[in-house]
Structure formats: structure tokens, C-alpha cells
Amino acid sequence: MNSVSPTAVQYGSPEASRRTLGHKNPSSRNDQTKMGSEGASRDGEADEVDKIKSKLLTAWNNVKYGWTVKMKTHFSSTMPLYLLGELYNFRFDDDIERFQKDFVSRIWMTYRKDFPALEGTLLTTDCGWGCMIRSGQMLLAQGLLVHLLSRDWFWPNALYTHLVDMEPIRSSSPSNTLNYPVPSSTKYPQERSRSVWHTLPHQRIVQYPHQEQIHRDILRWLSDHPASPFGLHHMVSLGGSMGKKAGDWYGPSIVAHIMRKALDRASQVPELSVYVSQDCTVYRGDVEQLLGEDPPSDGSVVGRAVIVLVPVRLGGEAFNPVYKHCVKEFLRMQSCLGIIGGKPKHSLYFIGYQDNNLLYLDPHYCQPYIDTSKDEFPLESFHCNSPRKMPITRMDPSCTFAFYARNKTDFGLLCDHLMKVLSSPSGEEKYPVFSISDGKAQEYSGAEGSQNTNIQTQHKTSRRLMRPNSDEFEFL
């Protein structure tokens, strides 16, 4: 979408002014000659400054109004949209700008290539098989952002980007030929690895130093390096204890347990832990044990925050529409961190909805490896500026819900809210998506530590039940 610089429209350029004056006064050329070379030089500099201003303003207008047009055509302007608990109304341009800041600030993890080889293999890319791990990384990144920076944080450069549409990789098996994404306007094969993002250099904004450092630290923890606690290399290594290896597909339940193990072993955020529910039941006693005591009034830190992961199955072979209401209600909650799941053979990270369409981040783009050990490594490829949606009925029934509680008080409020949603009379389902029970799991099953031991049995059973066309997702 082209636009005209307001400066050029209202005031005109120096060159245009001189042409106008020259038309009115034939002697102006002689006057200009008398000014000498110094005056000509000043005029030349003014021309250059005006051209630069015009280009910058045009670029800014392309970004601002291009996003506005895209939002109004891609999403309904009459229906409210929820993004991880935040409400947006696209009838107002201010809400479109708020949504852009919020959406682009979410951390986007995608396929990568040319990273250090995974241990024991020659694989230097996860293209074609690592999409569920990437979705899990995005969910974990959201939890880290909320925990370390709060839900209100946004990346300052989120407003200053060009919109570049990309075609996703579509591969149905790890052995398929890998097709890397290219911008839709690109015609030349040699440009296939070009970055999908272009941040306007004149609009770079520096956030508070400690926020910028935390933002970069989170990306370092998620980077594709063997030493990264939440990176692909470590995730694959932890998956080995569950019968998974590099090149295999991972289900949302398996990835939930991998995230729990990764955070348990990480020293970077000792005050945060992950709880994975068993048999679609959240046991309050187990979660409260992880949380510890609430912090005292003097502000000193006691206890831990927790990310609650609930693997579920919303139907048999396909998504059961009676669960639509419940899924949308979860995404409206401020404590919700999103849903990892997707559509058959295609993992996605769901972060919002509008009407009966889910909003998601798609990991199916292959980007070059970024060396995050550098002080000023580029951030653009870790943020997505192209919102996408799909009908909720296309959702694969296997998925994992995620919620965050900072302390016992928050967890109590979370349980109260969840129980209202799960027992809502407006829901169509006869059975709740999951349940919340007092006490601890071993008090009901008599099997202490079953959260750590049942997963392998569950995984083996799921493989026997799995259909050929749903092999990317695990039956619970």
C-alpha cells in the first residue's frame, strides 16, 4: 500500500518550490546563479534531507496502514478477538495497534537449519519433524515472559516492521524433501534463505535495559545450542528417556513432560516449576506442594510459581465441536499461556480466538540458525508479524492446555475460575474437559511418583492406537 509523505503534500519539496518560483519570475534563474556554489550546496543538502524524510515517512505509513488494512481484511471488525486473555476490537485503529504490539511480542520458535549437529546424529535441522517441540518452546517462552516480565510487557520494535507474507513448509513425513519458505514476492532461488523480517532501522527503540536483557536471555535459553537449557538439543535429549529420538514426531503430552523435566533441571529460573496433570485431573495438593508458601508482606521471595500443563483429548478421531465453548473460555483467561496442539500432521501454538476461528503461531518455517552467544544477536526472526487463523473444528483433538499461577493465592483463583468454566451450564459437553481434585495423586492411586513412571506406558499404548494419518499426535 503506497502512501504519500504528509510533508511533501503539505509543504512541497525545495525542488518543487524552486520550479514554481521559476515559473512566476523569469529572472529567478539569474538570481540563483548569483547565489554562488555555497547556496547551491545548501539547496542540495536540503533536497537530500527532504528525500530521506519522505522515504522514512512513507515507510512508516506503509507499516502502520498496511497492518491496519491487513487486520481489517483478515479478521472481522465486528467480532471481539481475544489474545491470551486480552480483548481487542478491530473497529478501532488504536486496538489494531495494541494487538500488533501484543501479537508481535510473543516469541516465535520455528524450524532452523545449520545449527550444531544433534548429539549422536548428523542432523543440523529439525525441518519436517520438530514442529511440536517448537510449539512447546513457544508456550514455555510465554510462561517465562509472564513470569519474568509480566503479561503487559511488549517488544518495543513490534510496531516498526514491514509485512512480508510467507508460504509455510508442508511436509507430511521427516523423509520428505525439505522445501524452505520464501517470501511470496521472491522469484529467484538464490534468495530462498533471505530473512522474512525487515525492521525499520530508523525506528529501533531501546527498551528498559533490564527488560531487554531478560528478553535476550530467554531467547538464549531457547536457542539451538547443546548448552541451552530449553533448546532443541536438550529437549531431544530428554525425550530419549520417553522412547523418542531426533527425527521422531512428538505429541503434545510427551512435550509437556519434556518441558517439566527441562525446567526441573534448569538453574536459570529456580523459582518456576512445571506441573503436568495425570489422567486429565489436576491435583491441587501436588500443585500447592510445588508452590510452597505465599510470599510474606515484606516482599521477600518464598515458594515458586508454577506452569500447569493439562494434556487432554477433545474427541475421538476428530475434534468434538461440543468442546468449542470450553476452549474459547480458557483462551479468555488472563492466566492462560495458550494451547499446544494443531491440526492433523501439523503442530501449532494457539494463542487466541475470534468467533469460531483460532489464532495461532506456526512453527513451519525454516530459518537460518542464529548464534545467540553474540551480545547483539538479531531478534527479528524470533517474532512473527503475520497473524493466522483456522476454524476451531479443524483442531486436532490431542492438545495440552497451559496456565500460570505466581503463588498459592493465584492458584486458588485459577482453580475457582477453571471450575466455573468446566461446569458452565452454557457448555454442550456432557463430560468436563478435565477435572480438579483436592489432595494429591497418590492419595487416590496409591502410586507415588506415577507422574514420572506412567508416561512411557501411556506412550506405548498410544502408538498401538495411533492411526497412520494422525501419527504426529499422541492419543492420551
TrEMBL record:
GO terms for cellular component: cytoplasm. GO terms for biological process: aggrephagy; autophagosome assembly; mitophagy; piecemeal microautophagy of the nucleus; protein processing; protein transport. Its EC number is 3.4.22.-. Its main location: cytoplasm. Residues 1-10, 25-35, 448-459 have a biased composition (Polar residues). One of its GO terms (molecular function) is cysteine-type endopeptidase activity. Keywords: Autophagy, Cytoplasm, Hydrolase, Protease, Protein transport, Thiol protease, Transport. InterPro entries: Papain-like_cys_pep_sf, Peptidase_C54, Peptidase_C54_cat. It holds the Pfam family Peptidase_C54. Residues 97-416 form the Peptidase C54 catalytic domain. Residues 1-47, 442-464 are annotated as: Disordered. It catalyses: [protein]-C-terminal L-amino acid-glycyl-phosphatidylserine + H2O = [protein]-C-terminal L-amino acid-glycine + a 1,2-diacyl-sn-glycero-3-phospho-L-serine; [protein]-C-terminal L-amino acid-glycyl-phosphatidylethanolamide + H2O = [protein]-C-terminal L-amino acid-glycine + a 1,2-diacyl-sn-glycero-3-phosphoethanolamine. It is found in: Cytoplasm. The keyword Protein transport applies. Belongs to the peptidase C54 family. Cysteine protease that plays a key role in autophagy by mediating both proteolytic activation and delipidation of ATG8 family proteins. This is Cysteine protease. It comes from Pelobates cultripes (Western spadefoot toad). The lineage of its organism: Eukaryota, Metazoa, Chordata, Craniata, Vertebrata.
